[in-house]
Specification:
8-stranded mixed beta sheet, 11 strands, Double Stranded RNA Binding Domain, about 350 residues, Alpha-Beta Plaits, alpha+beta, 3 domains
């Protein structure tokens, strides 16, 4: 049975779910509010449905256990069989509910930017990078996602030294995030006259598309100093304190304005400049963070840092993180990645659940 803490949490979610319909009715013509509530309701619907199924199974189990004490042997046998059937179902559903309650990666619903770069192997590595790009393009196509190439550096023989593209679609990051790392191919290159198998690599980085940076400057983060404007003298010198100096305390950025005739105008202009500088700073930090993430993901491209191997002679694809192999290499390269992604997602969920339960 669910723990009291888990049951209380699920009951609270169910109560919130039931209250949303009333709030939608009250929102009336406030379409933005209605949209927000509709999204919240959709987000809760699956967990509420599972919880209600769990409560129904729990009630059936309780009734069956009561019949275990019956004096009728036939009823006892039926009840015993029902208990044996219901208990595993409830245990599995409870695990599913616990997983549903785990905090989701906030990036999961975002579009992604994927970067594929040829690693070890010269022109053969570039051709393999092109194979990977086609594989991800076909995978996206199968899910109804769009693919938009942002930049590419071709090798001249049909391969890519580098290709960067965006994948647009609901949940793109939640599926493709497992593809980051070094991919290795073993095959006989077209240019190999003696039929020897060569090993080449390509690196893949998967970055969640960043939201537009919004700059909000709390008043407590700013020190405002006012002073008299300096000028050429005579009538150009302001006798009132109209000049403004803003100091952004967290960053130390200082902005001064004195060209306008009023303190208010100078303050508005200074704030505009400050926001522009903070925006630029945020973008730079964001880019540096993405670069650091990309460097962590792609490694050096050496053969030893592999997450998956594509072996052409054996038509085998092996994911080394989970020890899973598929002997349908053409199908995988045609976008059949779900076998690996599903298992990787399941393993990640199990690890997160174990961390919560420890």
């Amino acid at each position: 049975m669910c723990s009291m803490e888990l049951s209380d949490k699920l009951s609270g979610i169910e109560e919130r779910f039931e209250a949303i319909d009333g709030e939608i009715a009250e929102a009336g013509g406030d379409y933005q509010r209605v949209a927000e509530l509709a999204k919240e309701r959709a987000d809760l619907e699956s967990i509420v449905s599972a919880f209600r199924e769990y409560k129904s199974l729990s009630n059936d189990l309780e009734q069956a256990r009561i019949l275990l004490d019956s004096s009728d042997e036939e009823l006892q046998e039926l009840a015993d069989a029902e208990v044996a059937e219901l208990k595993p179902k409830m245990d599995a559903l409870e695990q599913e509910l616990r997983l549903m309650l785990l905090p989701r990666d906030p990036r999961d619903d975002r579009n992604v930017i994927m970067e594929i770069r040829a690693g070890t192997g010269g022109e053969e590595a570039g051709l393999f990078a092109a194979n990977l790009f086609r594989m991800y393009s076909r995978y996206a196509e199968g899910r109804g996602w769009g693919v938009d190439v942002l930049s590419q550096n071709e090798t001249g023989v049909g391969g890519f030294k580098e290709i960067i593209f965006e994948v647009k679609g609901a949940g793109a990051f939640s599926r493709l995030k497992y593809e980051s790392g070094v991919h290795r191919v073993q095959r006989v290159p077209i240019t190999e006259s003696q039929g020897r198998i060569h090993t080449s690599t390509a690196t893949v980085a998967v970055l969640a598309e960043a939201d537009e940076v919004e700059i909000k400057v709390p008043e407590k983060d700013i020190r405002i100093d006012v002073y008299r404007s300096s000028g050429a003298g005579g009538q150009n010198v302001q006798k009132n304190e109209t000049a403004v100096r803003l100091t952004h305390l967290p960053t130390g950025i200082v902005v001064q304005c004195q060209d306008e005739r009023s303190q208010l105008q100078n303050r508005l202009r200074a704030m505009s400049i400050l926001r522009a500088r903070l925006y630029e700073l945020a973008l730079r930090e964001q880019q540096e963070a993405q670069d650091a993430t990309r460097r962590a993901q792609v490694g050096t491209g050496e053969r030893s840092e592999k997450i998956r191997t594509y072996n052409y002679p054996q038509s085998r694809v092996t994911d080394h993180r989970i020890g899973l192999s598929s002997y349908n290499l053409p199908g995988v390269l045609d976008g059949g990645l779900d076998t690996f992604i599903d298992e990787l997602a399941t393993r990640e969920e199990a690890e997160r659940l174990q961390a919560v339960n420890e």
